[in-house]
Amino acid sequence: KVKELIASELGRPVEQLFAEFEPKAMASASIGQVHRARLHSGELVVVKVLHADIEKKVGVDMEILAGLAVLAEMMPEFRNYRPQAIAAEFQRSMRRELDFGRELRNIEQFSHDFRDDDTVKIPIAYPKLSSRRVLTMEMLEGIKLSESERLAEIQADTAELARRGAAVCLKMIFENGFYHADPHPGNVMALPGCRIGLLDFGMVGRIDERLHENVAEMLVALSNLDAEHMTSLILRLGKTPADLDRSALALDVADFLSYYGGQSLDKFDLSGALNEMMEQIRRYRIMLPARIVMLLKALVTLEGTARQTSPRFSLVEMIRPYRRKLLLRRFSPRRRLRKLHRLYSEIEHLLDILPQGIADTLEQMQSGRFDIHLDHRGLEPSVNRLVLGLLASALFVGAALMLSQGVPPVINLPPLLPNFSAPGAAAAVFSIALGLRLWRAINKSGRLDRKKRE
Fold first, then answer.
1. How far from each other are the two terminal CA atoms of the chain, in whole angstroms?
2. From CA 242, how far away is CA 228, in angstroms rounded?
3. Residue 285 pLDDT > 50, yes or no?
4. pTM reported for the whole predicted model
5. Can you tell me whether residue 292 is helix, strand or coil?
6. Per-residue pLDDT averaged across 23-38, rounded?
7. DSSP letters along 354-399, please?
8. What is the per-residue pLDDT for 313?
9. Which long-range contacts (CB under 8 A, 24 or more apart) does 338-344 make?
10. Alpha-carbon dihedral of residues 58, 63, 69, 70, nearest 10 degrees?
11. Could you tell me which residues are beta bridge partners of residue 201?
12. Would you say 298 and 205 are in contact if contact means Cβ atoms under 8 Å apart?
């Protein structure tokens, strides 16, 4: 079945494509499997093949996940975690991983970025033997960093492996702006000569110029223990709620910087610091962009991989030199000129469209066609509750008047209920029921005692 899929994707039988092909998979994962093969030119390769009908199965799972995310978004205790946004980002990530053509382009980009670096090996990809569902690339022969016992058997220099692996990933992040977003121990290999080999390029991240600036400012704020600056950066990067308590956030950030800023490099826990920062951001219901979350996750994974390989490794110590590089890059004349040119282009475009825009607005105002549209988000439930509350109040007042005046028909049950108005009693019961229903709806939405909980 695998051979049939490869033949249908690449247009020729497997026997013509490869000199040797092992039908039994050497490894299998959730979306695909890997087979060992040999080219007619003699090179050993691995062939990644998607499982049959995996796209359909993943599609069904994504629909279920999207439905669960909608339900979770309705619950106040899960709303702050943005279930629908997380589900949408996960769907995009899965779609990218199901396209081996994208992974092929990622391999080619990494190969170009590290073409002059002898410390790292990126496997060679073979575009003519690849497609959207099949990926053929060079087979790297080494030991994965997850295989600690095998590394100990060959007495590998684990400290140097951790340093080189981290150096490669940090270069991707801080210099190239294109990085491997899943550097866990199973995706990093120790090759002969203490070289680093990388695997699985389906999940990658990109860092644009604006994000480089923000990362540089964060490093400056961390080194200076500047809580106010760090708070401003968090608010600039994330989407904040309308009722954010900025002073409380600044105080928590100051405590965070005070605690982690006083730690020595050999004891500094970067993953713990990043996870605690993310927890604080979630607690204040600040929504960070997906690319920043991916970058933080990659750094946490990278430190975990390096610490597993060499327990005394310090990722923070390796990041420190990049602080000066990022600052020099930020204030470099070439970059300033490029930024001025971009600003000039934007101002020029604005000046081009501004006169026509002003003229159109004035024309609409003169002709009486100038409209302002307001979007009342979430106002309908409040209006409905207000109307229901007014109705219950009016009904209760009317019931009290009918009971006091003995509006017929009356029920005469002396001595407890002499001349008791039946319509008044019914109206009173109905108004109380409406009031209880309104109280229950407000309490269930989590808005009744919100201030007290916060």
1. 58
2. 19
3. yes
4. 0.70
5. helix
6. 88
7. HHHHHHHHHHHHHHT--------TTHHHHHHHHHHHHHHHHHHHHH
8. 84
9. none
10. 170
11. none
12. yes
